[in-house]
Amino acid sequence: QLSLESNSKLTVINISNVDVGEARDIGVRHAKNNYVLFLDSDCKLPNDFFLKLRQVLNELSEEVVAIGGPVKGVESSSLVQKYLDYSIFSYFPHYEGEYIASWNTFHKYHHPNMSNLLVRKDVFLEIGGCWKGKGEDVYYLLKITKLSYKIKYHPALMVYHYHPNSIFKLVRKY
Hints:
Helices cover about 30% and strands about 15% of the residues. The protein is of the alpha/beta class.
């Protein structure tokens, strides 16, 4: 369990009535380090997530400015959650290998999303932050590659996501 009491390096910023892209921008502006890890509130981290994060941190470079990983559903018997885990049309990445995506290869892979993305703050600010609306992660990743930077997909950064468990909830969310 990670808490503010046990880690003085964590800061919680309470904001309301902003979309996710704007919330990410606000968080990055407050970040004191050049590395920023985006995690979504509806994700559950494996117990060894931060240990694995530390191992892949040194893979960020002048060229590779973001690293993301797979997103798997939290165990459930819901047909909708299973679809999101196993469908080739799922918007969540679930590839098991490693790859590096660039502008010319971005379309070949199921790109990471920002529910578990490690980025360099200086490049995030250079790009101008996130799109203000849904799809901010795809927009941000495309901007990275358009500027000749690269994105690494690394299976070590896997998180579990609480997917909607009914068609109605899925449609309402997205």
